[in-house]
Design brief:
Blueprint: H1 26-58, H2 65-86, H3 94-98, H4 104-112, H5 114-125, E1 132-138, E2 145-151, E3 174-182, E4 188-192, H6 193-217
Antiparallel strand pairs: 1-2, 1-3, 3-4
Length: 241
């Protein structure tokens, strides 16, 4: 799967999630605003991840492995958090709304319990502690494709099966950004970060659509929270200077 737009964002400036009606009540506002904030964390990590991978694909001067793997794992962790927050909303069918993201749980559980995975899985499969990230870089105006692996930590041995996709028709530089790790059973697992972002985008679009429909049905006005959103407060100590 190609990265058609490495600047893709889950939350746009005109998103109704940034303009919640006060009539929703404290609990609903808290949940929806937490969803918005989580999405913007993911947006930041995704933007930084793709930016660093593009740099690394063409100029290997500074690998920044901790940052890159950190961005990838943060997307995983916050995707699971997003699903959990959505489950707090009164859906008539939760699996219909977030079911296409349930697979993220397995990866998030590994991230959450990496210390337990040392004996269970990591040693048995020679998988590095923070896993491996791989991607295909396709040169512009060319059929040439490079496969790159970024392995966390000291490389004692790193085994990871990977099928080379057909990228002949891809117009994207970055393709198939895969995070490789293991599950509790000691099985090697991998997930495509771009696929996760696409699934999250569908979820956010569903949330925004339902929120707008609710506002229309009950004649609620979207509120401008600009001066009361993500506020910075500075308290300065008085001096005699």
């Amino acid at each position: 799967m190609g990265i058609k737009n490495s600047k893709m964002k889950l939350i746009n400036e005109n998103s109704p999630l940034k303009c919640l009606p006060v009539e929703l009540g404290k609990k609903s506002i808290l949940i929806f605003d937490s969803l918005r904030f989580t999405c913007e964390i993911i947006d930041h990590c995704y933007g930084q991840l793709t930016e660093e991978l593009l740099k690394l694909s063409t100029n290997i001067t500074e690998k920044k492995a901790p940052q890159i793997l950190g961005y990838a794992w943060s997307i995983i962790d916050n995707s699971k958090r997003l699903v959990s927050l959505c489950e707090q909303l009164p859906w008539e069918n939760k699996s219909e709304i977030v079911g296409h993201l349930f697979y993220v749980n397995e990866f998030r559980n590994t991230f959450q319990h990496l210390d337990e995975r040392i004996e269970e899985s990591l040693l048995k499969t020679d998988t590095p502690f923070y896993g491996i990230i791989s991607w295909f870089y396709k040169y512009q105006n060319s059929k040439k494709v490079d496969l790159l692996y970024l392995i966390s930590g000291n490389v004692i041995s790193a085994n990871s099966e990977l099928t080379v996709p057909n990228l002949e028709n891809s117009n994207s530089e970055l393709n198939h950004i895969l995070l490789h790790t293991v599950n509790r059973k000691g099985e090697q697992i991998k997930t495509d970060i771009f696929e996760i972002m696409n699934n999250l985008k569908k979820l956010v679009s569903e949330l925004e659509g339902r929120l707008e429909a609710h506002c229309s049905q009950f004649n609620l006005n979207l509120c401008n929270w600009g001066n009361r959103q993500d506020v910075l407060i500075r308290l300065q100590q008085e001096t005699n200077d």
